[in-house]
Amino acid sequence: xxxxxxxxxxxxxxxxxxxxxxxxxxxxxxxxxxxxxxxxxxxxxxxxxxxxxxxxxxxxxxxxxxxxxxxxxxxxxxxxxxxxxxxxxxxxxxxxxxxxxxxxxxxxxxxxxxxxxxxxxxxxxxxxxxxxxxxxxxxxxxxxxxxxxxxxx
Length: 153
Hints:
The protein has one helix at 3-18, and strands at residues 22-25, 28-39, 45-58, 61-74, 77-92, 97-108, 113-126, 137-149. By secondary structure, it is mainly beta. An eight-stranded antiparallel sheet has the order 1-2-3-4-5-6-7-8.
């Protein structure tokens, strides 16, 4: 990687990290993070990480999307790479009970799987609502997972 590219990535990382923010606007909350570490000397290491979370509350509906990723290389050889995305929707019947759906996708080539996907539907119940210093929720549901394994030659 050229020095100019590294310098630009470091500058963007610093600016973005300094401006990493939580924003609340009409029941919409967003969080963004970006980080990078580049070292050189006897070995050259490159590490880049990002994360995004979006929460949107619309009355009895609550939506959440999150995504994070990580990539690491040492001496231009890929050492780790992971992407993870989750989408979740929740509907509150009342203060006590709710139903939620969740979809997730993970691409982690160093885990033994090419990718993993899952989907689930659950019913939840809030049990300790009148306590000021604790909360307890119980969920029961069904889900399915699909995993693609790494096939080595």
